[in-house]
Write a structure and sequence with these properties.
It is a single chain. The chain has one helix at about 30-35, and strands at about 15-20, 20-25, 45, 50-55, 65-70, 75, 85-90. By secondary structure, it is mostly beta strands. It has one domain (about 15-90): 2Fe-2S iron-sulphur cluster binding domain, sarcosine oxidase, alpha subunit, N-terminal domain (Ubiquitin-like (UB roll), Roll), CATH 3.10.20.440. Strand 1 (about 15-20) and strand 2 (about 20-25) form a beta hairpin. The longest helix has 7 residues, at about 30-35. The chain is globular, with a radius of gyration of 12 Å.
Length: about 90
């Protein structure tokens, strides 16, 4: 499912990459918002074997949105602000 922005669309754009592919986001987006709005699809496979995951709680309590960010290591995409130039890999 692709998300569509309904508001706050006038914020300045920023650029990051997901596994080397360009992703456009808006300043103030979390990584999860940026990646899902760009149609990134699942971010990782569940360690419990129940399928693909892309975020569940949206507040940093679950384990479903882990990604790896160059220079930061493993972070929760829902609780990490996207920054211009970030290089992200699926967790």
């Amino acid at each position: 499912m692709r998300l569509h922005r309904l508001r706050d669309t006038a914020r300045p754009p920023i650029a990051l990459t997901l596994e080397g592919k360009p992703v456009e986001a808006l300043r103030g987006d979390t990584l999860l918002t940026a990646l899902l709005a760009a149609g990134a699809g699942p971010l990782r496979q569940s360690e419990f074997g129940d399928g693909a995951r892309s975020g569940f709680c949206l507040m940093g309590a679950c384990q479903d949105c882990w990604v790896a960010v160059e220079g930061l290591g493993r972070v929760r995409a829902c609780a990490t602000l996207a920054e211009d130039g970030m290089a992200v890999r699926r967790g």
